[in-house]
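Annex B.
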Amino acid sequence: MKKISLAQCFSLLNYENMKSLLPLAIFLTLFFTLSYPTPERGTYITGPGLKPQHFRLPCQYFHIHESPSDDISVTIQGLIDERRYLIHHRIFRSTKDSFIVHYQIPPQIDSLEIRVFSNVTGEDINGSPVTIKERIYSHKCICPEGDFNRWLLRTCGETLDLQIIKDFAFFPEDIPWNVSIILDKLKEHFSNPRSQSYCHYLLKDNEVYRECFGEHVGFNMFVDSILHYLMRIVELPDVEFFINLGDWPLTRKETSPSLPIISWCKSSEFSDILWPTYDLTQSSLECMGRQELHIFSSRDHSKNTVWENKINQGYWRGRDSNVERLKLIQLGLRHPKHLNVGITRYFFFKEEEKELGVKEHVPFFDFFKYKYLITVDGTVAAYRLPYLLSGNSVVLKQNSEYYEHYYSKLIPNIHYIPLEKNLSNIIDKIEWARNNDDIVRKISNEARDFVNHNLLPHKIFCYHAQVLSEWRRRLMNKDRIEIKSSMEHIPQPKDDYFHMQHCSCETTHLKEEL
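Glycosyl transferase CAP10 domain-containing protein: predicted structure tokens.
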């Protein structure tokens, strides 16, 4: 049985129960406060990039805390074949009192040293230097750890995210999942190949197999990518699961029998089990890679326009994929001093183009020239929200029945400014924001802090792994998983010859195959 944190325990209790447990809560709070030392006052460092041998991330990163001054320097050196090399890194301000440093590991290095020091005194800050005297591999090397449970505990902890607990709680634990029956029922319920697409995945001996159903299955490449990445760093347990490839959730709660399937977004009417969206996952995999838009790039580019120089208008650009977006444009036409909004492409409501007009496409990073960034549902929840929260503007978010894996942790008026679903209060909210600039700026800072704690790549990858672990626990025949003849084997990509030549573990792996 998975453990949950003390805070999670109390969030699951009602008020009356909590009153009776107040003395226990006080005792435990004092116990944990006294038992676990806090960092010394002053600047200090934390983050997965300080232990890259434990979590091989596509880009490693760590935080420099309590540093309002910019007089900080970082050096990262690796030892390769007894020669010392400087490793390229980037450092940029994350919040008003912290920085993020990120870097990439070459195919393999024999040791690593990270130094963070003051430019004024030359002295290392708390926790520096970090010296790792063991071989470290790139995330592209096929060098998986053998013990999945040990890796999961060490890198992700034993506390499950509350959203995972809630999603799985819908399905009775005393009824094991029979994959064959679930697949037959999915085929029965979702028989229209044009409107529903999903895949049956099977992981065995750290290899990927799948069979997909429906006409539009191209998004399976995003599922393949995250599975291949995880399999390069750890041997995943044998498991079978189903994933919806569309934006719309699939299984309503009244469906009988209950059909477990993974989706990227849902509402309270659906029982789908959430995974981080394909967009956020892929941007995490491509950090410092081919994808321009990710959590770090949003933060980095947004600093080009400081708070005082931002335009005091609500800003939005997007497609016409929701009627509320049309309402937003109508409001913008009536209140041009408050709103700079526009639809860049019509698909669903082409007849409205003449009246509402069309605006030219604007690069995403230019959004941060504006102080108030609006997010309105599209087909479902707008997947761009993590990147808006990561920048240095403030988000005005429409109330919505749709949510992603992290929404339950977002708090209105703490992490974003809430808007009515019909947007009726948007002008009042912008007026309020203009008159309460200090409060609004604090909301912007809290949003970036939220991203640091919940949406950075290691959190995204842990969420995937924890869902797979919990899913396997529910299977009826978890120890007798067999590859179906109708399934396609999806091997690890072999297009990165540089890593294939320089990862010693991968070289051994390939020789064994030959």
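Confidence is low (pLDDT under 50) at residues 1-41, 506-514. The first helix runs from residue 6 to 11. Further annotation is deferred to the next reporting cycle.
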